[in-house]
Write a structure and sequence with these properties.
mainly beta, six-stranded antiparallel sheet, four-stranded antiparallel sheet, 1 helix, 14 strands
Length: 183
Amino acid sequence: MSFDGTDDYVDIKSLNKNIGSAFSVAAWIKTSSGSYQTIAPLGRVSDAPNNLNWGLTIGFLAANKVEAYAQTGGSTWFDATSVTSVNDNKWHHVVGTYDGETVRVYVDGALEDSDTGPNGSVITYSTSASAIGRNEWNPPTSYSPFNGMIDEVQIYKEALILSQIQKLYAQGVLRRLLSLNPL
């Protein structure tokens, strides 16, 4: 899917339920922009601005880097930020996981960072939207839209482990090498 960085997104409202205490979001991304943009958030815990509870973004905490972050209630956030810059206009496999305690970020099959926060399930507010390619951080003034391409978004109801993520990465590399959409 190609996103123009302005108003393109894919609505996934059906995920706005209790997404639980363990899950993963994986995607292939390609962008040349390192500014704040959203790959896939999974809703907000309330209608209050700046109250996002889980997401996978680029450039929120560090330009050009992928971040996975979580909020399990209250105002405490915890986040993991990649070492790898992903704004090189090449395809990257990015994964964010949460196991009920620790948020992790992986790029191209490698664990790059983790952060442990308070235990708990991530519960989304029933009317907030989830989308691929934009967030609901401070609507309607700031959706942080994605500028580039997002492919093969996968959402799991478990925290994938490194070997599973490496398998997904290897399968994706093979598909890209055999397709018209190479790395």
